[in-house]
């Protein structure tokens, strides 16, 4: 399986291809491949941001529960 850095590099290259006019690009992660178009550029940006968070060690691990305490 590819490392997070390799996935990020592939996603950034795919984004570049979309911006220079390629109609469709394909990005793989794990055993899945996802196709992006100019219309789904925001989704690709979100994927790139998530990969950057993983590399920085700040990836979200699900929702956190907020507890409110009422003083008695």
In short:
The chain is an alpha+beta fold and 72 residues long.
What percentage of residues falls in helices of 4 or more residues?
A: 40-55%
Radius of gyration: 17 Å
Question: What's the CATH H-level homologous superfamily?
Answer: Head-to-tail joining protein W
Gross morphology is elongated
Assigned CATH architecture: 2-Layer Sandwich
Output the helix-strand order.
HEEH
What portion of residues belong to β-strands? 15-25%
- Stretches where pLDDT is under 50 for at least 5 consecutive residues are none
Largest sheet, in brief, is: 2 strands, antiparallel
Count of strand segments = 2
Q: N-to-C terminal Cα separation, in Å?
A: 53 Å
What strand line-up does the widest sheet have? 1-2
Number of domains: 1
Count of DSSP-assigned helices:
2
Q: What's the level 1 CATH class?
A: Alpha Beta
Mean pLDDT: 82
By secondary-structure content and strand pairing, the structural class works out as: alpha+beta
- Reported by name, the CATH topology is Head-to-tail joining protein W, gpW
Annotation keywords:
alpha+beta, Head-to-tail joining protein W, gpW, two-stranded antiparallel sheet
Would you write up a description of this structure?
This protein is an alpha+beta fold. The chain has a single domain (4-56), classed as Head-to-tail joining protein W (Head-to-tail joining protein W, gpW, 2-Layer Sandwich). The chain has two helices and two strands, in the order αββα. Helix 1 packs antiparallel against helix 2 (41-56). The longest helix is centred in the N-terminal third of the chain and has 16 residues, at 4-19. The radius of gyration is 17 Å and the shape is elongated. The model has no long low-confidence stretch (mean pLDDT 82).
